[in-house]
Specification:
The chain is of the alpha+beta class and 229 residues long. It has a single domain, classed as NADH Oxidase (3-Layer(aba) Sandwich). Helix content is 41%, strand content 12%. The protein has 8 helices and 4 strands, in the order ααβαααβαβαβα. Strands 1-2-4-3 form a 4-stranded antiparallel beta sheet. The two termini are 29 Å apart.
Length: 229
Amino acid sequence: MNSVSQAIESRRSTRAFTKEPVSKEQILRLLNLAARAPSGSNTQPWKVYVLEGDKLGVLCKKVCAVYDSIAKQPELTKEYQAAYDYYPQKWFSPYIDRRRENGWSLYGLLGIAKDEKEKMHIQHRKNFEFFGAPIGIFFTIHQELGKGSMLDYGMFLQNFMVAARGEGLDTCPQAAWNHYSKIILPLIGAQEHEMLVCGMAVGYADQEDIVNTFRAPRVAAEDFTTWLA
Ligand SMILES: Cc1cc2nc3c(=O)[nH]c(=O)nc-3n(C[C@H](O)[C@H](O)[C@H](O)COP(=O)(O)O)c2cc1C
């Protein structure tokens, strides 16, 4: 395999990180590489906020506190809505089946059974600590941009994750943060017109943690491709 294939193949969503630091120079280099992504009319819709140290710690504490309070008072959920629908309003096959398989395989690996709400809460909460990563990133977009810009954004995000893997780093893209944008956006100094696209944990995978042995399966190309000749 060439190095690009290797980076793509070995990337996975990492859900436990070591504290090994990552330099500002490295993150900026990777962001510059990611920004080579194509975008419609070269609009480059990305805006990026990188957090580390105290700034990361303070933000995580605030969001974790709200996440915990929602568990005690579920009616608070409606106050914390994501700015855009990442998932469909109503799930359907085969997507719901893949989602379930993914969730239960991961929880199964962690020994979390279907009725263990508290354990699920603890696991999901790790999102709001960037899974222990030394670097947390938030990505925003101008909310007036079109759907196509989200397509461009995905290419930028994947470029970043693959480039990071190429340098031995690990990542986890995180839509879980999106529900808390009204806490996050003011804290990072975003402008009124910015919408949170997602967060991302960046660092080195903790190889000792069982969660990182999870390898999500894929449908084979032969099964999702129609060949016309
Ligand atoms: C935009 C985006 C948002 C995601 N949000 C989360 C998240 O909030 N928390 C999480 O643990 N995984 C999140 N994931 C990871 C997916 O669950 C993961 O990509 C999928 O299960 C496939 O596994 P892999 O990335 O290891 O190949 C997200 C992935 C993407 C692309």
